[in-house]
Fold each of these.
Amino acid sequence: MGTRQRKVHTQLDRAAVQIFAVNDRMNQVLIEHLDATAWRAKPPGNVRTIAAIFTHMHNVRTKWVRLTAPHLNIPRQLNRAHCTPQEARVGLAESAVRCAEMLAEALGGSGGGIEKFRRDGWAAPWPVGVEMLCYMLAHEAHHRGQVCMLAHQLGFPLPSEVVNGIWNWEKLWRECGSSGGPGCPL
């Protein structure tokens, strides 16, 4: 691998790690500001509770790590029926670290052992690449949207500054330890 290719891989893996940290910070912000009553409130119809959505997000992350990078420390799964907001926050933080390690290894071009992204047992594996990160982010953004909508529908809308705050990437980027923002050297 040439110097230019190594530099691109190094930049991509560092950016992917930071982007996934910001992604997890968005989840943490929502849980921090969610009315406690909304956590287990049962939506009408056959719909997951907010607790079940966040535990699903964590449990899917653990599956991605288990199937794609089984040599990493795989976080324990959460029980959606009994998980508290604090347990979800701790679990999500841990699974975010493991996903970041997986992304760094897969996208870093360091010759790590990760060659395929395995989303699920039923899905064909993909070669590692930026699509892996995009898939992971899309999955989580979808569920964050569900959480915001459910909280509102159940009568526990999140404050505007919270809903708008998850779009303030510069602030989230700093909260995750970067002095710059998106596009700045890491």
Amino acid sequence: MTTTTNTTASLITEPALFVQNLVHMLCDDVDADRFADRVGTTINHPAFVLGHTAYYAGVCVEILGGSVTFDEGEAELYQHGAECLDDGSKYPDKATCIARFESRCQDAAEFLTACDASLFEQSAKDTPFAGRFETLGAVASFMLVGHPCFHLGQLSAWRRVAGMSSAS
């Protein structure tokens, strides 16, 4: 049997999985007790950023026709428009946040890899991204690469506000 590579899927999944390396650069040296600390500002803290982007990796799978099991209250805590909360008890601990982010990204990558390549060429007109992106492939690329990297920039800023050095 001959197998073929889904080029569109790999163009999305390879950088999406690389984002996990950036998360570790930004988060590994953050003290667990500061992971949900907004450091006296309105900046998004790491627990919110990772939860939000993990949530939307799952939403991406749903948009593409897959199914995801979300935790109770996850949508309310992380969906678009949800405020990052000062109450750290509302968020999972650091290890859980990182593990969930990695798991959701891995699950999304595996789902995309299993999709027929024609799915990525289908119209995005019936998605929340209608008018922004033409195809489901463009939606997936944004949701799994562009969107997380946008928020990782917030973590870089959070580090500086928190008195930490740049990530390395």
Amino acid sequence: MASQSAKYSAASSPSKIEGARGSMIAPSLDHLKNTPKLKYLRRELRNNSTMAEKSLWNWLRCNQVEGLRFRRQFSIDQFILDFYCPKLKLCIELDGDYHFHVNQPLNDFKRDEFLREKFGIHTLHFENKIVFEQPQTIINAIINFKNERDKSIASVHTPPVSPSILEGELNTHFSL
């Protein structure tokens, strides 16, 4: 494993596109996150993390991946997410033996669907062994998700093409 104090980033990261309208994209989750009723369970999960969770946390903590802040054992509504990046609305779930029991894949799917539809949170699942054997795969997946999200946001904020450009004239002024 490479030095964990190193910062991880994409070879060419796109420029940040943020603005006043950014907060209007999705509603605030403040009233649904880290609810008091799950406080002790979250603490228990953090204090008794699996080896895979501890190892991945060493990669994600302190904004090491593209400057993104991740939270560990973070609750949204009635669910506790292994790792959560609020800026990307991205959940990282590590799937150990428990996740391969008969009904668990369906339960995971329903939870992921609920989080995506109600809160706009996307979930990436990785088997525990990936953390130990190919941790860069997880880092790359996070970076790819961020880059795709940035491209998506950029396309929303791209001004429409002026008809004069389509007709061959160069117009440097765009209007919305």
Amino acid sequence: MSTNVVMKRSALPPRKFALSSIMVFGCSLLSLCFVWHTNKQRAIFWSNKCLAQAFDTSGDAKLKSWTLNLTDDSFMRLRKIYQGGRQEYFSFNLHRLSDISYLGTETNGVLRIHTKADDIIVQTYQDPKGDVDSMSTMLSIPVRNVTAGQLDSLRNTLLYLKAQ
């Protein structure tokens, strides 16, 4: 028993067929851009949520408020405002990220973010000892109630964002 397969030609004229093929390819490529953007946005959202929940203020009684966030343009920023008005500000681009380490237990510890060189901007404002404007290679973030799985996921997410 043999079956013959017959290929039929497209009903579209060659020019319209080529144009429709290009349109389908273009739309597919465009949709991949949105998927990448969506994945990056999800990674930023998840990282911000994780860092906000884990940030530990208990070791600094004079801390009045703080903000810690990742921005859409791949910057990590930490601002601490103390009761006397003194402010500390840390900022760096994730593309300069070198490694992430953790010292502590699941109850509390310090997340250390390392950069390739002196890439972390360190600034203080309204400091009685004088305002500081310098650079650093490590940012220490006090954290609490973070599991090993969360730390691993945070590390992988930050490395993913670094590559974007």
